[in-house]
Amino acid sequence: MGKFKGRSLYLFMTLSLVLMLTFSNMNLSFANANNNRVQVWVTTVDEQKLLEQQADVFFETDTTFNPINIQVDENIKYQEMDGFGAAVSGSAAYLINQLDSAKQYELLNDLFGKDGVNFSFVRHTIGASDFSLSSYTYDDMSQGQTDLNLDQFSIFQEQVNVIPVLQDIKGINPQVKILGTPWSAPAWMKNNEQLNGGTLNPEYYQVYAEYLAKYVQSYENEGLPIYAITVQNEPHHETSGYPSMYMSAQEQIHFIKNNLGPTFEAQNLETKILSWDHNWNEYEYPIQVLDDPVAKDYVDGSAFHCYGGTPDKQSEVYNAHPDKGIWFTECSGGEWDTDFDVNMKWNMSNVVIGSIRNWSKSVLLWNLALDENFGPMNGGCTDCRGVVTIDSNSGEVTKNVEYYVLGHVSKFVEPGAVRIESNYDERIETVAFKNPDGSKVLLAHNNSDNEQTFKVKAGSKGFEYTLPVGAVATFVWEGSYDVSKINAFDKIEAEDFNAMRGIETETNGNVVNVGWTDHEDFIMFENVDFGNGAISVDTRVASASAGGILELRIGSLTGTLISEVNVNNTGGWQSYELVNGDLSTAIGINDLYVIFKGGNGIANIDWIQFQPFTQQNLINDSGFETGDLFNWNEWHPDNQQLAHSIDNDDPLNGNYKLVHWSPADYQQLTSQILNVPNGTYKASVWVKSGGGQNELHLFAKGYGGEELQAVIGSEPVGTWTQYLIEDIQVINGEIEIGIWSNSPGNNWAVFDDVELIQEYR
């Protein structure tokens, strides 16, 4: 029976038998000769180690407990990565081009080569910026003159430094993507007729769209395809000090949907269009752009800078429009803070790990290179720091803290990699990836004020590593693994824990329970699979004391709190009762911690079982069992008879089905418009058809994206067949689900069991 212990015992242990059973069913394999080998690179903030390879560590059977537990799960996938790098500004290109050929080759290979830090993404200024040798665009005219046909358009000013450097970069790393960003339209297109400040004159919106298209085409002709452009650099920053241009959200919407998007489409340009390109704190701007359905069709996503706000605002935009991408495109260090420690920690937490965990597909810093005087400058920042510093006299190259910030991820994560799950702990921040070749990369940063030892787990194997304060480590390993899982929806016997603190097990008849539970004791279960989501938890408990609380967390002892189950006195240590707790959404595979909160002698616990989400069909009268169409909307042409009805002849289920038929040619729509929470949905309908229709399909529209269809077609469907639309991303709180027929007379189709179900992921 459970008793008051009257002591503070902290005992860490695992059950060998449980582990043997667990691992006997696990298939873990790696591709290399030593299938447990993990390579490690480390940077310490005292600069004694700078992206320095360490001795390998090895995955081993996991038999120890560590309170900081980093679980990497390649089966949970997030965004695909485009790459990492910095801006080849006019100043950076000039400095690189001034180096002798040997030094230039050495530098570019170090920055973009496989043996270096392997940068794979660069930003390019469309015309001049605040870091150019002079102010210019590709179509500058004398005061009072215009060039509506863009006859004077030329990129000649960039053929001296910028284009040769970009071509050399592409020669070293053909995977490098180029993002183009304008600081200003030509002065004659602007309301103030100056490059510095002002706004784009609406009279020239279309000409400017064609100007940007010519930029894309001109660079393509130089062997430099432009992967994406942002519409305007920092559209809320207008200054008289260097080329810049204000653009409100409404102006950007108008320009994209009426000019830039249609122009790129008409000219068959595949270059992506990105909105915003400014700070995190004004995240409402890109949401406003994407809320316009016409503009949204042309926009691939939103870009962000680091100079205001926090990276979690990227997730605000993603959650509003999960069908669009997020890119991080600018951040600069400078002489305002020269502390390596502070810069490494802030950049790792916010720019790299923070932005990527908030859906960014890229990490781009500002100038790739500047000189010892933080230039050449063209107005603006007078003490910004490049990723590297090139001495303008000697040509000596100094690698700055930003080089190591980027290098810890760019060297190892290839374009096309996907972010995979790694649980969050505020002491050891992480982000993980799976490369196209199957290798895994884990970036870990000690963001605490103390040295930390933590465990990294792949499946049910793991290794421990210790990082000093502020240090960064990149771990790389090969191969894939299968995880031995516990089904959350089966009874989980309490005594089958993988790790614990303070408790003891005991047997009473046929019942084996966990007892001797005091405040802050816990039991932990590895790899509990919550599938598409659990909604509640049942626990069989007994207590002869005042009881307490069972605190359920996932990931770690301080991980996400998913439930608190209250336990009261049940009348005895073997007087078991079933208690229930609500659950915040738990999805996928997680380590589960049951933590006891209260005094001494809280409760005995027999088993735990979670209850899954029930997939509720949101369609009203989905099987037409009311015998009428009261819950359904319809449309047909004014000069045509109604062509839908309900009958009871051979339905799929129940007593009724929907019929589309008319003796004359007909068009008929039957649908429901529903208010639903934003999220991912699937829609379906069961169909039989005599065939011969011009159009026959299930559709989903009005949800914030393009209309989706499950085409049934004109061929006969002789038996009841289900047609399905998956991955419907509702972003505006409503959706229309319906059936459309366009048919010659006397052709029929019948329908039953229409469904709309939210998918929990």
TrEMBL record:
Belongs to the glycosyl hydrolase 30 family. Pfam families: CBM_6 (PF03422), Glyco_hydro_30 (PF02055), Glyco_hydro_30C (PF17189). The keyword Signal applies. Keywords: Glycosidase, Hydrolase, Signal. Residues 490-611 form the CBM6 domain. It comes from Chengkuizengella marina. One of its GO terms (cellular component) is membrane. This is Carbohydrate-binding protein. InterPro entries: CBM6, Cellulose-bd_IV, Galactose-bd-like_sf, GH, GH30_C, Glyco_hydro_30, Glyco_hydro_30_TIM-barrel, Glyco_hydro_b. CDD domains: CBM6_xylanase-like (cd04084). One of its GO terms (molecular function) is carbohydrate binding. GO terms for biological process: glucosylceramide catabolic process. It comes from the Bacteria.
